[in-house]
Amino acid sequence: MGERKRLSADKRKEEQKSIAFAKLLNVPTSPRKMRLVADMVRGKEVFRALGILKFSNKEAAARLYKLVQSAVANWEAKNERKAEDGELYISTIYVNCAPMLKRLRTAPQGRGYRIRKRANHVTVIVDTKENN
After folding, report:
1. Model pLDDT for residues 29-78, shown as the tens digit of each residue
2. Which of 28, 50, 78, 102 has its CA 20 to 30 A from that of 5?
3. Number of independent structural domains in the chain
4. What pTM was estimated for this model as a whole?
5. End-to-end alpha-carbon separation of the chain, Å?
């Protein structure tokens, strides 16, 4: 690795150390369904977002609930104190596509229809109001 590339990589690693985030990889739900749930809590205060997710009927909400809890725990570990009510909020949440599983379903007259089993990656970043 060259000097310039190593310096930029070190800079990026230092920036990551100050950010509290959590990732959930290869969730077997389509990204479109997960984005509907992510849009409900984007920019909200953390404990309010947890309440919204807890009482949502969507299956993806249960997975996102645990992910937000994990991001809050990561923030508490980095700052060595408990999160207070109204202090933390979800600064960034995004859903990316994961690799698709491609399967074949038998169809009439010797044909086969393709089934695409989609998955996604979710990233949640929590931050305080003062930092942003």
Report:
1. 999 999 999 999 999 999 999 999 999 999 999 999 999 999 999 999 99
2. 78
3. 1
4. 0.86
5. 34
